[in-house]
Amino acid sequence: MNAIEVVQRYIKAWNGRDADALVALFAEGGTYRGPRVDHDLTGQAIGNYAKTVWATFPDVTLELISVSQTGPGQVAYQWLLRGTNSGPLILIDGSAATGRTVTVLGNDVMQVEGEKIRSVEVNYNRQAVDDQLRGTAP
Fold it and tell me: Which of 48, 78, 98, 119 is most exposed by smallest CB count within 10 Å?
């Protein structure tokens, strides 16, 4: 399996709401970092984070827009997330669901070693998501 195939499996695990498969994709000590977490997540903490996202947006989907290998084992890819906030805003402020749909474009950089993820750095406009949830997005 090459690095791009690892990205595809990663997206499939997110869309399949399969926390065990997601965690299994990471190498021991492999890290996940994104705008909603203030430190690197490893191991089961990655699966727990995914479960919180799925609880907040039960219908969330990630669409892979583009993907390219940028170096040995390094992949950059762009995705589009869509989801309706029908669960509590656990990752934001714990408030009740808004019922609003969010659409956000993001991009990640993943480092792969063999068939395992060494690191994922997630990037998206966190303010745009918050604005959509509050109904203040342009």
Answer: 48
